[in-house]
Amino acid sequence: MNNTEKSRWFGHPWLSLLLAVSWLLLQHTLAPFHLISAVLIGLVVPRLLHGFLPVSGPMRMLPAVRLLGVVLWDIVASNITVARLVLGPMSKMQPAWVTVPLALNHPTAISLLASIITTTPGTVSCTIDEQGHHILVHALNCTDPAQMVADIQARYERPLQAIFESLPPTMPKGESP
Description:
The protein is mainly α. It has helices at about 5-10, 15-25, 30-50, 60-85, 105-120, 145-165; strands at about 95-100, 125-130, 135-140.
């Protein structure tokens, strides 16, 4: 097997390891069948996703892990906040449309930012404006739009920049992310 074939099958070793370990954790066993299944999943799934994953270089793992932690924390905290808002008096809610200017240029990073915003309860990204280079966000409760923009940029956009800044775009310029 030459280097090109090897890089195709082992092009994303961290993803392979993560998938195999996740499978074993979900199964709660180290039985031979599940060990073999974990290895196969770890090899086959990244190979099937090869065209969608960056091939020019690995993502930076430490910023990615930190971002994952921030997003998971924000999802939990936002769920509690939204529950309090919904169960409380409706007069407390201050919905708003907020325009978040983008410093990101990588289309995958921009799509991930929009997905993170949508995943966090209480906010929905409605559109990615490529000409204006911003994302329009609807917030269920926003008392300070400037602070919300600053939070999104600091908590999500800057880490995405750290992860994707050295990767070339995965789409031709002009295509929608």
